[in-house]
Amino acid sequence: MLKTIIPFGPQHPVLPEPLHLKLTVEDEIITGVFPALGFVHRGLEQLVHIRDFQQMIQVVERVCGICSMIHATCYCQGIEALMEIDPPPRAKFLRTLWCEVHRIQSHLLWLGLFADCFGFESLFMQFWKIREKVLDINEATTGNRVIVSVNVIGGVRRDLSTEQMQWTCSELSWVQNEIACLKATLLSDYTVKKRTVGKGVLSKDKAFELGAVGPTARASGIAQDMRLLGYSALDQLDFEPVVETDGDCYARSKVRFQEVLQSIDLIRQAVSRMPAGEIRTKFKGRPAGEMFVRVEQPRGELFYYIKANGTKHLERLRIRTPTFANIPALLGMLPGMWLSDVPVVVLSIDPCISCTER
Amino acid sequence: MQPEIISVSADTLVGEVARAKFEGFRFVTLSCTESGGDSVDILYHFDKDLRLKHLRLSVLKCSTVPSISAVYFAAFLVENEIQDLFGVRFEGLVVDYERTLYLDPEVAFAPFCTVGAQNSNREQTVTQPGTADS
Amino acid sequence: MFQMMPNILKNLFFPKATRRYPRVVRSPFESSRGALFNDIEKCTFCSVCELKCPSQCIRVDKKAATWTYDPFACVFCGICVDICPPNSLYQKSAYRLPVAGRELITLTGVPRPKLEKKT
């Protein structure tokens, strides 16, 4: 059988960011995959030598253009742990609220892109129409749509009044009703099922061995969610990780869909339990030592390693984003697939390559 | 509260990693940082039940470290990245990009290393990657 | 098979979800972070904004009493507004309009005399 090598990417209509895969194909079935990265490597980790540790919050937010608040939260938590600063409880609840709004916005973006990748453009537009309302919530409460810049070391910069919180909850009720209308189309439609069920299957053992994280792992039956660590007010909210067992693209889309509803519920809980008080603690001094921090990004487990030596510049900031961990899992999913299923499978891990190659 | 980090050497590294795999730890990532002077620290991170375990390996720059990608396949990507950015080579890599994952083939020195590593790296031959399959 | 029908019918008979920008412009939210302005009368040229800016887009010259700002390098994070001691920096809620060429904004004020030490 003759082997052909077909390049997938770096420019592809389905991919939000450039990723290059060399697919070895025998008669339309994939037999081997060789990934190549490095198209959007910006060298952001090197900026720690130029920007001091407080200006790095803005740099770290711009690592990813979709889940930026969560990067900033992780970084601030790391520096606060190094300097032993405890942000006030209201600040922790506000951070959780904005992180969950980001998660909703990121999952709605993915749901739209997923529908687009098998040609269902009208469903893509409907999801993004709902996403606009979530971005309006961001802008009205924080000042910007995606890169919100509300985190500072020691707390948050903006407060939410009671009217703003009630308005947020009513907007999210609208979002919930609109999504309920689209649930049947996404999860029960005949053509959607034909394109996604049984494609890109990742068994539970393989997912664990290849180090899959986030919804990719949860769809294969591994109940792993970093929010169970209980950082920043999540220990006072009740939730269970959303787990499916099939491990195919359909299971991954089900997991992400359910997580949107779970995030709306978490925001309502946070609003009802929000304590009164300060939003920021002052601090003095500079960080010194080593710290490891993990938070749950929409795509999985985000891992930060911060090393500081007592000056205003950090010595090392190492960021390991979830897509970096999911690429070996993608290499385990692709062999055996038809060539026409490759875009669907690649998009189902939610690739955020600008995060991967910060 | 400083995290617990176990120190290993290049000889005991693969044994410790294999033991972590046997105990059911999931591979998280590797971190590499300069630790002053001529050495770099490579940290290995593993996770089980939301609990992290770390191993620290101190090596001289431009030295060779055994690869753990035979034990944990997922490590090959981050070991290639460390090869690109720091002056460390891994031997026994399952998939070796030979310093072209992020860098162009003409680049002869590692960006994150200081001058000492750059000079000795220029003497190393950087073989062209498998251009036959591009 | 017809799960999308209620949605399609709603979209046919209800108003559009899109705005005919630029003929119709949505008014910005009150707390949106838009263009940065400096009330140069109040500015003391202490250069705290220059030190704290993450994108280094402000240059302050105390002796010549000038405040130079690059609106195209600015990321509109609002940190300078938060920390400005005399509260001369402020942000309007509308984003700056697109222009044809890049220009720096330089404002000149009155140099502050040095405070005499109390003996």
Helix-strand blueprint:
The complex is a heterotrimer of chains A (358), B (134) and C (119).
Chain A lengths: L3 E5 L11 E7 L2 E8 L19 H6 L6 H16 L5 H29 L3 H22 L8 E2 L2 E2 L5 H27 L1 H7 L7 H6 L5 H4 L30 H24 L15 E10 L2 E10 L4 E7 L1 H12 L8 H7 L4 H4 L2
Antiparallel strand pairs in A: 1-2, 2-3, 4-5, 6-7, 7-8
Helix pairs in contact in A: 2-3, 3-4, 3-9, 3-11, 4-5, 5-9
Chain B lengths: L4 E4 L4 H10 L3 E9 L4 E10 L2 E10 L3 E3 L8 H11 L3 E3 L23 H9 L11
Chain C lengths: L4 H9 L22 E3 L9 H5 L5 E4 L4 E4 L9 H5 L5 E3 L13 E4 L11
Antiparallel strand pairs in C: 1-4, 2-3, 3-5
Explain what you see.
The complex is a heterotrimer of chains A (358), B (134) and C (119). In chain A, 46% of the residues lie in helices and 14% in strands. Chain A has one domain (4-356): Cytochrome-c3 Hydrogenase, chain B. Chain A has 358 residues and is an alpha+beta fold. The radius of gyration of chain A is 20 Å and the shape is globular. Chain B is of the alpha/beta class and 134 residues long. Chain B has one domain: Beta Polymerase, domain 2. Chain B contains three helices and six strands, in the order E-H-E-E-E-E-H-E-H. Chain B has helices at residues 13-22, 75-85, 115-123; strands at residues 5-8, 26-34, 39-48, 51-60, 64-66, 89-91. Chain B has a four-stranded mixed beta sheet, with helices on one face. A two-stranded parallel sheet of chain B has the order 5-6. Chain C has helices spanning 5-13, 48-52, 79-83; strands at 36-38, 58-61, 66-69, 89-91, 105-108. Chains in contact: A-B, A-C. Chain A binds chain B through residues 5, 22, 34-38, 41, 43, 46, 81, 208-211, 226, 228-229, 289-292, 294, 301, 303, 305, 307, 315-316, 318, 320, 324-325, 327-329, 357, and chain B through 1-3, 5, 26-29, 31-34, 43, 45, 50, 52, 54, 72-74, 76-78, 95, 101-103, 111-112, 133-134.
